[in-house]
Amino acid sequence: MAPVPVVNARVNYIVLGLSFLFEGSSWLVALKEFRQQKGKQGWFQAVRRSKDPSVYTVLFEDSAALLGLIVAFAGILASELLEIPELDGVGSIGIAIILGATAIFLARESKGLLMGEPASPEVQRKVLAIAEQDPAVQRANGILSVHIGPEEIVAGLSIEFEDHLTAPEIEACIERLEARLTEEMPEITKLFVKPQATGTWELRRKAIAEASEED
Q: Any idea where the domains of the chain sit in the sequence?
């Protein structure tokens, strides 16, 4: 509310320069790691589909820090050259806006993983396809899944088995499915199978969907 001119701005510039060097080094490492993780996906698509928030969180936090340092430099320089010390405070407000927007974005993107995010549609389709290839399976009705880690998925399968099967034959089928999923999809760390008619599954699925919409 009552700003005074900076007596020696050189110290500010030295601190900002060193900070930019340190943050920039961390940013380059995070950028390299994120590029390897995202592959051919777009930047924001990779963030939305990522199951490991640690990589993009560091990247976006460092990006916000670098932008904040640039804004701080611009505010100090402008206040010194124009002799308007209020511009230094404006720069601080700009930094707060950048950090706040970054925090909101990261919180929104990480919320699903914190609350339990389902496996991607591609993973779900592959699990169902593997299940339906077993001769004992009449129909793989659907799957309920949740990530408990970046590469750890708990899956629940609803399966309608062939009517003539005995309990031991159903148990053998489930063991075959677990063995194949362990080999081809190691990210499925826990598998639960529920013998269920297709009609019953559809009713249950609709009930779950309606409950999710109400929440």
A: 9-115, 121-214
Which residue, 193, 192, 190, 114, is CA-closest to 152? 190
Sheet holding 137-149, edge to edge: 137-149, 152-161, 188-195
* CA within 13 Å, CB half, 199: 0
Q: Which CATH architecture has domain 121-214?
A: 2-Layer Sandwich (3.30)
Amino acid, res. 15: V
Q: Residue 137: exposed, middle, or buried by beta-carbon count in 10 A (0-12, 13-18, 19+)? A: buried
What lies within 8 Å, CB to CB, of 110 at 6+ separation is: 53, 57
Please write the tens of the pLDDT for every residue from 47-99: 766 666 777 788 889 999 999 999 999 999 998 888 888 888 899 999 999 99
DSSP 34: H
Read off the tokens for 182.
């362990």
Place of tokens 């399966």: 159
Q: Where are the beta strands (DSSP E) in the chain?
A: 137-149, 152-161, 188-195
